[in-house]
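ok so I'm stuck.
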Amino acid sequence: MPGEPARGASSMDFDLDLDRERERERLRRGYRSCRVGFSVYGFILVVAALVSGAGMLLLIQGMNPNVGFWLGIDAFHSRFGTFHTWARLFACLALAVAWPSNRGWTWRAGLLLVLAIGDIGLWAAIEAVPLGLARGPSRHLVFFQYLRSALAWSRFLLLASLATDFGRHVAMPRARELGRAAMSTATVAAAIWFVLFLSRIDWDARWPLVERRWTPETVQLMILCEMLQIVCLVQTSVLTILAGRAATRPLREMAKEDRWLDLGGPAWGEFDGTAWGKDDGMSPACSHKGDPANRDRTPP
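replied:
not stuck anymore, here's the structure
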């Protein structure tokens, strides 16, 4: 009958519109998750850089490097560690759920989340006495402290890798250069930290690990490692904050297109590769090529 093909075509158009809307919602959730995850993580790193930088300045001047002592807060480092640990878990969770159908992203973000969860366990073991979980410090306290530091360098590398890939995806200026600098600094600092670890542990003693006394050489290694850590904190915080801000641009473009479609205008990209960012394969939801600023049709 003449009417049947028309109904079939109408049903097919409806299915295409529904699939397109689902794709848009996937993208929207991914960009929002990245914006939240990178912004929160960047804020954490900024605060950590300020605290570490203040402690280093105090140490160089021969003063007590405990920032909490000068602020008049005895439990400053314990409270800051609590905030830092749980806020990082929230940021890692937001990044882990951003692009669930992309295998590379899910693997790295999932590993970052696992490291954040493991850090909570190490934090609880180190802070067991202040938290009321134990009457005295653990005999494995030295092992827990060094293991937590090792995981921190791994998180630096994973976070910089994720922020770099996402920055390239949304056409963030100098994303590759910033990411390469952050990962290079983290790699060098981790290598120096490993030398410090080998120098500080008394390998002649039996388990558990026992530290040796400080020597002029190990003090110099410690100061160098702390300075590189501050540089790494600054570089990674800049990278993650810029990545979080860059996620706002595609969300704004999607909101503009939504308003344009509500007014009855034609779709700009229709997920045909003329929408947000570059086609770097990061986002599984669609293949984006070009910049929204270069569109021929823009809403008034």
